[in-house]
């Protein structure tokens, strides 16, 4: 299977990139002397891709396990190298689950299946970074 995207410069430091889904995203970066941003940073989008990939896995597995009535979010933090080209050398993914009487074993299993087996983006990150994961269960 192949994915193909097209990214077009739209002026200044902005690029618009399409996606096989037909959706587009604007990317840009900080420009010295300006506080205006129109898009997302390419490096930060990598972290969002990691969260999205793993999150889709986790929700899918929990649905199959009949786990309901929970809220779920992920915090992903990447540490960049000091030297150019700057890339993430360490990435930490914190999985947060909120609810009442959450089934900790099912949540742990769903996250671990994503981390160890299903998430291709996480596997790509492992090629260049140390990836750490933590699961936080917040029962109310």
TrEMBL record:
Kindly give the SUPFAM superfamilies that the UniProt entry links to this protein. OsmC-like
Q: Which residues form a coiled coil?
A: none
**Identification of the protein by name:** Putative redox protein
